[in-house]
Write a structure and sequence with these properties.
heterodimer; A: alpha+beta; Lipocalin; nine-stranded mixed barrel; 3 helices; globular; B: alpha+beta; nine-stranded mixed beta barrel; two-stranded antiparallel sheet; 11 strands
Chain lengths: 266, 255
Amino acid sequence: MRPRNATSYSAIAIVAGLLFFSATPLPAQWLGYRIPGVPRTADGKVNLSAPTPKASDGKPDLSGFWESDTAYFYDLAKDLKPGDLVMQPWAKALQAEREGKEHQDDPLSDCMPPGVPRINMSTDAMVHPFKIVQTPKLVVLLYETSANSTFRQVFLDGRPLPKDPQPTWLGYSIGRWESDTLVVETIGFNGRSWLDTAKGHPQSEAAHVTERFTRRDFGHLEINITIDDPKTYVKPWSAKVPVHLLPDSDLIETYCENEKDEAHKR
Amino acid sequence: MMNRSAWLWLAVAGLCMSASAQWLKVPTPGIPRTADGEPDLDAPAPKTADGKPDVSGLWAPAEIMIDDIAKKLKPGSVPFQPWAEALYKHRRETESKDDPTGWCVPGGVPRSDAVPYPFKIAYTPGMVVILYEAVQSYRQIFTDGRELPKDPNPAWMGYSIGHWEPNAFVVETTGFNDNVWLDNHGHPGTESLRVTERFKRKDFGHMDIEITIDDPKAYTKPWTVTQPLLLLPDTELLEYICVENNKDLVHLVGK
């Protein structure tokens, strides 16, 4: 088991753990390396309540190694009230089928990318944090994922979203700053990603995902996610995902080279 | 006559990559241009704000060496240990049927320097990141002063640290697993492999990577090859999900 943190398992996490255990390597290096230039308290620990750092261009610097609240990996809509999320009839039927079959058809268990926004979500069982690498014109998101190490690029160079893009798992992303929030807009999905794992909320090719990243202080980030997918949902809906910094740790290489999920599907 | 490895790579290209995509013609901001607006690839090599060689950009091999990374060396000059030479010959005789990249793992280092898909080098304080279109993978090269890890958990991409010399960005990488193929032909590497890459940007559009292979278990002495790169202006990486439609395995039958 990975050493980053000890977590309790919910029933769903045990299923997910079976699904995702195979692709995860053993503990690795640089997990305890003291990263220089980081605010620390008198006892040498990273000061997670220090102010939000600034980038060289004066924007908030979101760079860091982050772990999201794990519950949203399983159910992105968990905080919504009835009526906040209204599925189109086909989507409701598909979602019920996925949930009823204990997500056995999840493309993630076939080592496909988790999709957006699910790729940001850490899991109870295996954590899978992500790293934000911020430059003025390009923000890179480096992911472990429970399938393969992969990345997203978010362009801040002023380009518009592409028209009629070639469909992809992770879409095409542009970003802009609204006050202290990085607003990332993503389109161009292939319609096969699941928004979450236990519920299997569908996503269509028409989906437009907005992720608003706000770093509250050194150790805390929030991603406010809006799903605008009129083919699938009657109206846009949102989820607010808390994220915390993982101090003095780093990404672990993850490749889906020892695939044993199939044996656990049922 | 195309050799088998080249066919394999074409098969990979045809099956795993999107046929067309977006942002392939978006002007790259901040690159020097000639009077007619074309990217000026012969402009001087840029420097970073603190005066170091800037090797960032979107690059691809200017010469295909992925089949045989030693192809420009004098024949017979790779200083194999006997077992490594035997393994290499076996891999050649069996037409690389055991190539791990057939299973969609990344090619590792230095094979990823030669992979015939674009890769992007980007700078951030304390780290240089390389984003590879191939298998949608990445490497982190730490420049924050940390040392290479001791007894690292073996990895396909290894663990990399970098520093600057007056005319090069120098990357040292260790911590590989024991199934390293340095190229499609299968020059072997072991867990004792240490790769030094010297990224030398000659002008805006051209760069060499001098690659030194130091693996005393597989080779009697270090050996060095040079992979030339060409900058790809006004285009972008494509999504490449190898596991989605991988048809390599049926072609990796060997003899």
